Amino acid sequence: MKDIRVWIVLYFVLNLFFISQPPLEPAHAWRQTLTNTIARNLAEGEGSMLYPKIDHGGDSQGIMASEFPVFQYLLSLSYKVTGHNHWAGRLINLFFSCLGYLAFYLIIKTYFNTRTAFYATLAMMCSLWFMYARKSMPDTFSVSLVLMSFYMFSSFIRGRHWMHLVLGTLILSLGILSKIPAVLIVVPLPLLLFSSSSLARKLGLVVGVMLAAIPVRIWYFKWVPYLVGLDNNPLFFPRSYMEGWQELKQYPMEILEQFTFHSFFSFVAFGLSVVGIYYMIKRRNWKAIAAFMASAVMMFLFMLKTGMVFPLHSYYMIPFIPIMALLIGYGLDQLPRYAGVVLILIVAVESIANQQDDFRIRADMYPYLKLEEIADAIDNDSTKVMCNGGDNPQVLYFLNRTGWSVNDFDINADTINQIRQRGGIYFYNIKKLSTHQNVYPYKRVLTNDFLEVYDIRSEDSTSPAITR
Question: Model-level pTM greater than 0.70?
C-alpha cells in the first residue's frame, strides 16, 4: 500500500459516492452555482470564452469579468453531451485534482525522496483539498494544472524531450488563467535552473515561463478591466497593498486560524509543518528553505491584494497547501517510521472528521431543487425575474432564469418599481432569506412554506403596503 497511485485511485472512487450531490452544501455553494451558470450558458450558446455570461446581471448583458473560463468550457462540453446536471463539474475537478496529487508526488519524489513524497501527498489529500477537490469550481483544478506543468518543466530540465517544455508552457498558462492565485506554485520554479548544466535547457525554461505569462497578462490586466467597463460585473476586487494591509489588521485571529487549522482542519498537521521547517533548518536544506520562504512571501503579497476576503474564505489557502504538505512530509520523514505512520493517520482522521459535514445537505435546502419546475409552471424561461438572494447567485441558478438577485434588506417599494421598469416580471421571495415578514402589494401567484412568488406588474390593493 506504499504505492501512492493506489491511494489516489481509492480517493477517486470513494468520492464518486457523493458526485451527484447538488451545490447546496454549506461551504461555497455560491461559487459552484456561479461556475455552473457560466458553463450552462456556454453550452446553450449564451456568452463565450471571451465574454463569460452570468444570470444575475440584471438588465445588463450579464457579461462577467471573471477568470478565463477553462474549467467552465470543459464543463460546458460535458453539458452538451449529458445535459445539465450536478455531477459533471464535480467529476471534472476530482479527476484533475487527482492528476495534481500524482504530479505533486512525482515532484517531491524527484527532489526529496519517496517517503517524503508519500507522506506529503497523503497530507495534501486530507487537507482542505479533500473538500474542494470535489466541488464544481476551478480552485484545485487550476493548482493541479500548475503542478502538472511544474512536473513537465522538471522532466525537461533533467533531460527529457523538448515536448515536455511545450506541454509545460501550455498547461502552466491554462492553469493560471483558470485562477490567478495558482501562480503561487510557480515561485520555486527558478530552483530548477540549478538542476541542469545545459544552457539551452535553462533558456528554454525561462522562455517557456515567459510565453505562458503573455496570455495571463493580457486576460487579467487588459481584458478583465475591459469587461468590467462593459457590464460592471466584476468577480474579484483587488486592493492596493496598503488597503489590503489595513483590512487584514482587523482579522488577526481569523488569519492565524487559516494557517493553523483551516488549511488541514487539523492542529496536528500544522504542528508537523512546523516540525518540517525545524528539520529543514537543522539539515541545512537551503534549497527547500528558499522555496518555502519565496512561497511565503508570495502568499503574503497575495493576502495583501485580497484584503479582508482572505481571512473570511478558507479556499484562498488552496494554492499554499502543497507548500505546507511538503513541510509535513519532510518533517515526518525525519521521524521513526512507526511514528510517521501513526501521525499521518491522526492527521487523516482529524482532518476528514472535521470536513464530513460538507458531504451532507440540510433538509431546508432541498426545496431549491424544485425552483425551476415552479418557475416553468408560472412562465417561460425568457422571463426576467428578481429574487432576494443577495450576492449569492444560487436562487437564479436553480430557477434557471436571468434577472436581479437583491439583498433582502434593500428590497422596498422603490426597488421593486425600478426593477419592474427595467423589465422584471416576477419576484421570487425565499422565505428563509427574508429578514422581514412583509406582505408585498402585488398579485401573489404562488405561496408555500419555502417560497412566495409575486407578479410585480399587477398591484393588489387589498395587500398591505411594504413596510420597513
Answer: yes
